[in-house]
């Protein structure tokens, strides 16, 4: 075809390793140094061990005498210099004749060139980077010499290679030797050297751990003290009762003889009186003669009973364990030295109930509550946290758990009171990170060494894990006193054994202070028992470049090869006939007609109606009156004014009417004039507004769109003598397809573990963003190992004071009032002599009840009796009392009594009956009390109600959380619709930062790295603000900005491609968190769940050589032609990237596509063409030209439908004879006649009929 129209079907990229450079003409395509020795060679060969080649050449450059710019013509021919510059400018636009003339004109100039001087000066400029112009001149001269040495005017391909040759830096000088690395693990039992320790303060996590640990220990001590005090109280009460009974018994024995003598004297006197009194005389107690002679009462000794105080320190010290005794002193805020000098606590009144066992128990409970509060305040939440950035939810849970490097640790000492031993001790809390969860701890040994060399060992440990961070609290417990820590401790050694066979240790010196010690690593005693992978070969690059320049190691990143950008171009090759599309049969003498009608109709009707009505009524009346009188003493002017006027206005429902009169009279000769002006203004306004607005809007839109297409065609074979058969064939297109290479890119591959970790860390440190914390289910809360206070609410039975306090504070729960565990109920009875005596007994009796609140049951009872004597020792004195089913006799003695009795009384509810009988006392009091405990039924009911309240509050918190989550997700959808590339921007930025970190120095103090502060430093104590911020303009700024531009512009970061590999390629301890991350964007979900990312970044065209040079030397080429390192891979890449674009690859292939076109087989082509349908007969581009579909059957025919051409004249004459030629009126008719002779009448009508039809 004369004009080929090409279309691009699609584009694709193929990746491959660069092909090795062809050995043919390699010495022509590259400029190599001829093997000879120079000063740089000697410097490299004789360099000291451990010195890099680059450093050796750098040192030699300091004594090298380079060629100066002004003296370059002394060493190199001026015409040669001009030729070198001409090559640089015309390497792509030269002509063969022009080049030949240049070469011929130079003659024997090569004989004047000292190649060693040329190469050495080029090396000097490459190493020192002192003069960019000279470096370019020397490189151009090397290419010019290369062209002159190898020029062949008859070989145009060779000449092209020579003109574009690249200068090669010799491998001997510029590529470091590969250092030998050990490939065996650390032998078992060998010990690494430990780095220097750092004294630090405890971090926030360590403070939290120590606070919880200390509080747990205090709670254990308080609980132990309370348990021992309960035992001591029982012993005290028992001993008190025994001692009291013994003392009372002894007292009664002591007064028994005195009472016996007294009783005998009374009896003797009574007997004597009875013998002389007349029994017939009535007894009169008021008659002295009727009473016996009084016998003086004996003086009885007073009953005294003394027992040790409840808070007797000496007694407590004898019955309590040493740790509990110290805890008691700590609670009472008594120093040990003071307590040892005073056995009894005096003037101690912290609480009104003190001193007593009950007061001590309250004090202990306060201590437990305080420490529980500390634990609650330092216990971290366990809910998942999501952060919202502009409505986009990103999980942030667990992002700070893996900040430290594996086995970086902090160990902190703390002093404490031991719950089992007396005295103050010091133990240690250790926190460190492990590589993954396979490093489970199976054993810990602690060793303290004193200054004298004495060692003590400890093996007890507990562990708490958070992700891969483990805390070992309370190491070496009870093994080191506080005095030993401050006076004799030299070092502490901790040896840790892991489940994978590894062993680690650390040794620290606290220097007699409670500060922490930190290090970045532990000492390895034994490595894990596993197969040791083969250490990969280190890329053959130096570790440092010029002036300590960082050179990328190549680990994690590799030069992947070449990316070929290809496309498939398609052009039309021709047309061929296809299958039969239709067959039309028309028989002889037949007329065949077809009609088709297509109608499309659409109708759209829209009706809108709106109506509104409003009415407003306002009635306002105001009246203002003002009166003024004025008197003028003397008026000189004679004048008189009078004005009057009216006004009226009206306005659409409002009206206003008023009038005014002004009058003044002046008399010049009057002595006195009295003027009275009375002005009254009365405004009455009544405005009534009625607005009725009725708006009705109706819009009817009716759109009718009609399209009608009528087609009609027929086949007329009425004059034909033969049947006609028409065969229609489909027409197929034949396309030519060709792969074309339209560009190449140099590719680098980066492998990034857990690519989203950097993103999570950055988000977690932002405290200003919205954070959504998922509520924790109290039923699934996980308590720390060995915690003294548990917060898990597995079921209602777990409800107690601690769990209620924790969860009520977290979810703001209204908890039902908790019934008291133990209450005391009682009743008091006043007992008075009833006036009835029997055998000289004064007595009284009574009964009552003690009401018990619902939900309680009795456990113990107490009866207390106080009474006043009746001065009668003749009969028994005492109290008989019954409390429930228990009967007690409270014996009395002479005089007043105060007795009490405590006993078990179990099982009474609602009330307890009380009854009493007093004997031989005038009056007294009986106090009956019972101790009641809460019933299990009521306690269960309260626990269930409380548990339900907590769970309801949790579910409310979950509902609120889910609502906020839904709101943020709704925002996320809106933002994503407005910015579809939101997640892609995050992925690109995080991956770019990770990739850049592989190819630059990560040391923050390095000269060329990211994160440099280029602002001008301020003086000490000066705060940087908007007014004093300036940029430090110096050479460092130029170097830093050049480095930034190179890294950002040399790579096509915006079109990087990446693949995310699943979570199981990340750290094992992160599997669960990576797997749980969710997002409704599938690619971003893959990003945050990825355990590894493969990123492929292409180098921007034109930067390939500069990037390769940087990766080899660590230097940024500062412009101009870039030399090539003598490396096969490097040279092959340079070779390939010089190939022209737009080259065809492989042979073309054909594609046959059906079309909607049809063609009539035979005699249907009316267009005057060489071929019936166009077809390109050039088939040389196809792999198999014979397989390309083509046809020779298309030909031009002039056949017609109805017969042969010789009948055409007759048919035309026949048709013409039937045409109307004239109109005539003959014989009363209007006739239509032909022009033929004789003429024929075709049609006629009578004149009359014509008139009638025309209404004449």
Short description:
It contains 27 helices and 41 strands. By secondary structure, the chain is of the alpha+beta class.
Question: If you had to describe this structure to a student in words, what would you say it looks like?
Answer:
Among the domains are: 18-178, no CATH class; 207-378, no CATH class; 413-521, Sandwich (Immunoglobulin-like), CATH 2.60.40; 844-934, Sandwich (Jelly Rolls), CATH 2.60.120; 1218-1253, no CATH class. 29% of the residues lie in helices and 29% in strands. The chain is built from 27 helices and 41 strands. A hairpin with a 2-residue loop joins strand 20 (640-651) and strand 21 (654-665). Helix 2 crosses helix 3 (53-61), helix 7 runs antiparallel to helix 8 and helix 18 packs parallel to helix 19 (936-978). The protein is flat. It starts with 5 loop residues before the first strand and ends with a helix. Mean pLDDT is 74; it is low at 180-192, 338-354, 397-403, 531-547, 618-691 and 1164-1169.
Q: On the 0-100 scale, what is the average pLDDT?
A: 74
Report helical residue fraction.
25-40%
- Rounded to the nearest angstrom, the radius of gyration is 59 Å
Major β-sheet annotation? 6 strands, antiparallel
Q: Segments where pLDDT lies below 50 for 5+ residues? A: 180-192, 338-354, 397-403, 531-547, 618-691, 1164-1169
- Count up the helices: 27
Shape: flat
DSSP strand count: 41
